[in-house]
């Protein structure tokens, strides 16, 4: 029978037996610095590792040809036309990255977000073009499923008016998300990643995928997505700022950890194969708790604002670039994420 602290349970004069004291030896017998004396020693006992294959790089695809337009608030990240995206994908495959997460910037938007689910939508065409290139066969292509880049009002669902109040309508949006997922899978997406935060979307997407024979296409749900100020630069990159109101009626309140666990549990029940949590750095407690509770693969999304704030500090010389970048990513792995979506993927990979 073991004692409370994991000891043998024998007590002598109300003190634990020697066996126990040996196990929890303290200074001066124990000196934790012994295992930090050299790079080789530190490497031997390192608990957490980063690999390029666990990094996912987001791409923002726009119409046109030969376009590489840098995003003002995200130095080093570009809006890319499909031909340029194909080249970028080749570079990413060469670096051994795990995958690409595709976002689309359509030329035309409407109330229903039609561009998200038409057969020749911008992401669908990009998926086909990248899939056709044998040089990038190793990369997983992940389709972000959401309507906000495609709707004229910039919300993640369709808008209904009830007694003079605008509402992002949950249930009518589900069908459109399902259509978007199915058309992306048919165009070549290896993984479908819904980021809209409508209730019931995983079930709707799973059945839409199955209905077109895509039983083997996994769903990576942004199960825990908070209404965050850290998405600011993304909205410039993807031109998806809501034209009125904000996203607080569908994305989660930053204060809520228990609610995040409910969101994740619900998505798993609906059939999510993997989950994503975002933002990452200000929400590492969520990642850790999710890791402790659930056994499916999970990732963290180091969002645009996290990238921009670090880049701003690098530009000012206030933080050491490579070290701070890798430390931010390692923290996400240590908190329990198996993979990381990050705008640093291309810069980080060669350092690993
Ligand atoms: C689309 C979506 C957003 C992000 C990923 N998918 C923006 C948002 O919800 O406003 C943010 C990613 C980032 O900031 O890097 N709904």
Topology:
Elements: E1 11-12, E2 15-16, H1 18-23, H2 39-44, E3 55-62, E4 68-71, E5 74-81, H3 82-94, E6 99-105, H4 122-131, E7 140-145, E8 158-162, E9 165-169, H5 170-187, E10 191-194, H6 201-211, E11 220-225, H7 232-237, H8 257-270, E12 274-278, H9 284-293, E13 298-302, H10 304-315, H11 321-335, E14 339-342, H12 345-348
Give the structural class.
Answer: alpha/beta
Count of separate structural domains:
1
Order of helices and strands: EEHHEEEHEHEEEHEHEHHEHEHHEH
* Amount of beta strand: 15-25%
Q: Determine the fraction of residues in helical runs and give it as a percent range.
A: 25-40%
CATH superfamily, by name, is Aldolase class I
Number of strands: 14
CATH architecture: Alpha-Beta Barrel
Indicate the mean pLDDT: 94
Taking Cα atoms only, what radius of gyration do you get, to the nearest Å?
Answer: 23 Å
Describe the structure using short key phrases.
single chain, 352 residues, alpha/beta, TIM Barrel, two-stranded antiparallel ribbon, 12 helices, binds ligand PBG
What does this structure look like?
With 352 residues, the protein is an alpha/beta fold. The chain has one domain: TIM Barrel, CATH 3.20.20. Helices cover 36% and strands 20% of the residues. The protein has 12 helices and 14 strands. Strands 3, 4, 5, 6, 7, 10, 11, 12, 13 and 14 form a 10-stranded mixed sheet that branches. The chain has a two-stranded antiparallel sheet with strand order 1-2. The protein has a two-stranded antiparallel ribbon with strand order 8-9. Helix 3 crosses helix 4, helix 4 packs parallel to helix 5 (170-187) and helix 5 crosses helix 6. The longest helix is centred in the middle third of the chain and has 18 residues, at 170-187. The protein is globular, with a radius of gyration of 23 Å. The structure holds ligand PBG. Ligand PBG binds next to helix 7.
């Amino acid at each position: 029978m073991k004692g409370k602290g994991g000891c043998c349970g024998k007590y002598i004069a109300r003190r634990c037996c020697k066996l126990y004291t040996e196990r929890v030896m303290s200074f001066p017998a124990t000196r934790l610095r012994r295992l930090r004396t050299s790079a080789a020693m530190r490497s031997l006992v390192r608990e957490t590792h980063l690999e390029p294959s666990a990094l996912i790089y987001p791409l923002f695809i726009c119409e046109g040809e030969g376009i590489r337009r840098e995003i003002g608030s995200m130095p080093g990240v570009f809006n890319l036309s499909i031909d340029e995206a194909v080249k970028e994908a080749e570079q990413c495959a060469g670096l051994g990255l795990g995958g690409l997460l595709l976002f689309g910037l359509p030329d035309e938007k409407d109330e229903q977000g039609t561009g998200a689910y038409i057969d020749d939508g911008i992401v669908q065409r990009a998926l086909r073009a990248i899939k056709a290139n044998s040089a990038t066969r190793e990369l997983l292509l992940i389709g972000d499923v959401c309507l906000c880049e495609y709707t004229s009002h910039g919300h993640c669902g369709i808008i209904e008016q009830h007694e003079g109040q605008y509402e992002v309508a949950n249930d009518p949006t589900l069908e459109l998300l399902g259509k978007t997922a199915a058309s992306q899978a048919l165009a070549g997406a290896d993984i479908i990643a819904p980021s809209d935060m409508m209730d019931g979307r995983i079930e709707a997407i799973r059945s839409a995928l199955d209905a077109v024979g895509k039983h083997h296409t996994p769903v990576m749900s942004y199960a825990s997505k908070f209404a965050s100020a850290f998405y600011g630069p993304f909205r410039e990159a993807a031109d998806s700022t809501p034209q009125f109101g904000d996203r607080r009626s569908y994305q989660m309140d930053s204060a809520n950890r228990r609610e995040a666990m409910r969101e994740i549990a619900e998505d798993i029940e609906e059939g999510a194969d993997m989950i994503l949590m975002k933002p990452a750095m200000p929400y590492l407690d969520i990642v850790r708790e999710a890791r402790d509770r659930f056994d499916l693969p999970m990732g963290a999304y180091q969002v645009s604002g996290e990238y921009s704030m670090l880049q701003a500090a690098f530009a000012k010389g206030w933080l050491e670039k490579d070290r701070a970048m890798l430390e931010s990513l390692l923290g996400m792995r240590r908190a329990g994420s198996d993979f990381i979506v990050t705008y640093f993927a291309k810069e980080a990979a060669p350092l690993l």
